[in-house]
Design brief:
The protein has about 750 residues and is α/β, with parallel strands linked by helices. It has helices at about 20-30, 35-50, 50-75, 85-125, 135-150, 155-175, 185-190, 200-210, 215-220, 230-255, 260-265, 270-275, 280-310, 330-355, 365-390, 405-425, 425-445, 455-470, 495-505, 525-545, 555-565, 590-600, 635-650, 665-680, 695-700, 720-735; strands at about 1-5, 445-450, 485, 510-520, 550-555, 575-580, 605-610, 625-630, 655-660, 685, 705-710, 740-745. The strands form two sheets. Strands 5-4-3-6-7-12-11-8-9-10 form a ten-stranded mixed β-sheet, sandwiched between helices. It has a two-stranded parallel sheet with strand order 1-2. α3 (about 50-75) packs across α16 (about 405-425).
Length: about 750
Amino acid sequence: MERKNSGAEAVNSGGYNFGTFGGVYTPALLTILGLVMYMRTNFVLGSAGFVNTLIILGVGASISLATTLSIAAIATNTEVRGGGAYYLISRVLGPSFGTSIGLTLFVSQSLAIPFNILGASESLVTQWPELRPYFPLLNLSLGGILAFFVWKGADWAIRVQYVIMAVLGISVMVFLLGPIGNFSLENFVSNLGPAEGVVSMIPLFAIFFPAVTGIMAGVNMSGDLKEPHRSIPRGTLAALGTAVALYFVQIFIAAGSFPREEMIRTPYQILTSNALWGLWFMVLAGVQAATLSTALGWMLGAPRVLQSLGVDNVLPGIRVFRKGVGPQNEPRRAIVVVILIVLPILLWAGMLGRSESDVEHSPINLMSELVSLFFLFTYAIINIAAFVESHGANPSFRPRFRFFHWTVAVYGAVACSIAAFLIDLWLSVAAIVIIGGLYFWSKYRNLEMEYGDARRGFLYSRIRSMLLQLPRLPLHPKNWRPTIAVLVEEPEKRSDLVEYALLFSQHRGILSMIQIIELPGCLEFGELRTKRLRALRELCREREWQVFPTVVVAPEFDVALHTVLQSHSLDPIRPNIIMMGWPHQKERVRPFFTHLQMIVNDFNRSALLLANGSDASAPKRFDGGTIDIWWQSQKGGSLITILAYLVQLDRNWRKSVLRIFLMDSKAEEKRIRQMLERARIPAEIVRIAPGTKLHVVLPRFSFNAELVFIEFPDYNARDERRQRVNHYLIERELKNMPPCFLVVSNGEADLLA
């Protein structure tokens, strides 16, 4: 197990202490009002029509709103450090989920940077076509300018964003107010429905959805906020509300002012040609401001996610990115990685953009689908995290943000997943495989963080609910499972009992290991019990036993056993099989039979006794052989056969053959064959003449078996002499035999259920 940095060493050591407006509202709003508003909204409107575009806007906004509410609930329930959504998710779903989604978030934001830079370059070459041969150079130049500001520090970037916001505000007014004079009801009605030939809205949704993904920009600044628990919900909700209102106004005005053909063919040019007072250059300045500010927001956020992953040290070699520069801990090493990702994409898209292409086949459209998918899966995991935190009902879940319910998170997660699969089925499957692979790889590395998460609370809540429902369902033998309590005096020396119990359960039942410590006259046993229980738990971890250990300290064994049998259960789940070793000392024979009778008769439990075991006889790998069942009654035979069948499910015992030895008539043999056929359990039946002594034929037939089950009807013998005779025979006849289990059934297990 790897124990990693707890994250107590804050990513935001130093920090900038930005407020809500500068740290969240401004970057989020500028990121939302980006490329799509200027370059693609008219195209979507012309293709889908006014009604469908509003539906696309509504669905996209509702997904972002649900995710924003989920973020607000998590952010106001925990101390927030650097890393944005990664930090929040990892502190709810644990390091494995956090690692997988952290890398996904980093990649999605890194891809969103060139996506928006492309929009800025395309607006320039659209305005001045003679620049198109220099498309790759434009991309690299604009990317270099952004990298310079990010390298200088987040404070520089935020100052630049204020200037960008002013330019953007003027630009939006210019392109919104300019076409109002052309607004006509006739044109509006003609744009209500979709364009001819447009059948599916899914590709258009994929193009438009990046417009509402900017909510993460403010969250990414979590490590540089003065009061993140206040700023994140307030700033993000305000930015989303402002942006959705502006998009609605834009769609409404454009639907009544622009011809459909022009919106599809020249979605950006009609904004400049219809600008207020002919201020086309302000529209150009606005699209530059919008796209570059969005790219700047992601360029600020992505390195901080990578830095937070480095602080938690979740991947080999990633710790190098934890260290920042200067008093504000700028993540410059992570910035270099982002630049190395962005550069080749800008070159590739620039080469594609050098040739004339229509809007539909633009590099922007090619990238929008990929960006949408990554953000959709990121949003889905954020909503899942909020659902787990809320529905887990931990008393520690006390968010300051009250406008949240777990159903909102469910909607957000389901809507994101459906949208992703509708956009591109196979790409979504690939994304899930990658995210799942990262999750299971992280889990395989067995990362252990010192920070708490909500998974335990969620499981506790589900277990509680299921336990309350279980007694309401009718009890039927069909639902019988081996729930085994192993009584063991020294677990370290008698691990064979636990190993066989695991073999018999095959992950289908619940196993507990009970150590009874007999300590007469001990008054202060609490410390002893605590120490011993801790040692048992450590033993289970070391040997990878899926067992629940417990320790009982009592002055007498009888008292302890009475206590265990009465109280060791969580109704309706209680042990139905008590498993223990056979007593080899003569003085233990009498109390052993007394205990066995109490287990079966008084408490109605089945008993499983390893008659000749030792630690050396623990289950091993076998290439084949037999599991022998000495059948004496229907009740005992059913339990033994079910246990033997479960043993065969183990991969090391699959080649084993079941043999049933029957000392009865041919009619009884026929009945049992029919019963095995109905039970769907293949087995060989060996009939032995009735009246034959078991201790005589047992060594002859089962000497080379791998495992032997024998029904033990003499458990109820009250006569001490009879008990000693049974003890002597078992000790003598089974001494050199394979592992033999004596079985007493209470009749709950039914082979025909």
